[in-house]
Amino acid sequence: MILFPLTPKASKHLLWLLPFLAISPEVRAGGTNTLLFAERFEHNLQGHWEQLRFGRPTCYSIVCEGSSNCLKAVADKTCSALMTKVEFKPPTRLIARWRWKIDRIPSNSTDRVACSFDHATRILIAFDTFIGPPRTVNYIWANQEKIGATLPHPLSGRAQMIALQSGNKKAGEWIDEERDVTSDWHQLFGGKPMPNIVAIGVITDSENTGTQVTGWYQNIELWAE
Questions:
Q1: No. of H helices and E strands in the chain?
Q2: Rg, the chain, Cα only
Q3: Contact 20, 125 (CB under 8 A)
Q4: Percentage of residues in the chain with pLDDT exceeding 70?
Q5: In this predicted model, what pLDDT tens digit does every residue of 23-34 receive, in sequence order?
C-alpha cells in the first residue's frame, strides 16, 4: 500500500483507519433490499468493536434506554472512536439508517476549526481507497453549521462531513436518520466511483473544547437497495 505523507495532526485523524483496510475485497453485497450490517447493541462490545484513541478515551458502554439497548458515549475532555470492520463491495444504492441523541453540543465548539472541532455525535463510513489514507463520509450533529451543510474535516479533505442536525434545539430527543450514502459519496467526492466499504464507526469527543458531552446511538444499519 502506498501512503501519501501527512502532517502529524492529519495523521492522527486518518492513519488510525489503516488497519481496517486489510480486508478481503471479494465479498459481494448481494441483491436489492438486502441488510448488509446491523448493530442493535444487544451484546458486549468486545470482539467486534474496537476503540481507537486519539487522546484520553471516551467512555463507550451499552445501556438500556426504555425497552431497547443503545450505545452511550460520554466524552469528558476525551477523544476516541469506536469502530467495527465490515467487508463488502458497494451496491448500486447504499442506505444508512440509525437513531441518535445528545445531551448538548460541546461549549464553544465549531465545525470548521481544528482547535474547537468536537461533536457530541458523529457516525462515519470508511472506504478502501487503496492509495493514501481512506476516505470517509461523516454524518455529524453539527455545532454551528446549518442542517444540510457539507464541509471537510479541518485537517483533511479525505474526511467529508454532512450536518444532519445542529445546535441544542433537539437535544434530549431521539432522532431517526436515513441517508443515501451512494448519493452523499458522489456529492462529497466529486463523482468518483464508490470503493469497497471497510468500516463503520462513531465518535463522541470533547478534547479540544475541554468539556463534557454525552451522545447515544441506536439501531445502526446499512442496506443495499
A1: 2, 13
A2: 16
A3: no
A4: 86
A5: 333 334 444 689
Of 41, 167, 44, which is closest to residue 99 (Cα–Cα)? 41
Q: How far is CA 67 from the centre of its chain?
A: 25
**Residue 117 DSSP one-character state:** B
- For residue 103 the three cell numbers come to 445531551
Q: Residue 175 — pLDDT band, cuts 50, 70, 90? A: very high
- Cβ atoms of 178 and 96 within 8 Å: the answer is yes
Say if residue 125's pLDDT is above 90: yes
How many other C-beta atoms are found inside a 10 Å radius of the C-beta of residue 155?
Answer: 18
**Cell reading at 115:** 482547535
Q: What are phi and psi of 186, to 5 degrees?
A: -65, -35
How many CB atoms within 10 Å of residue 153?
20
**Distances in Å between the alpha carbon of 150 and those of 138, 147, 175, 177?**
10, 9, 20, 16
Model's pTM, two decimal places? 0.86
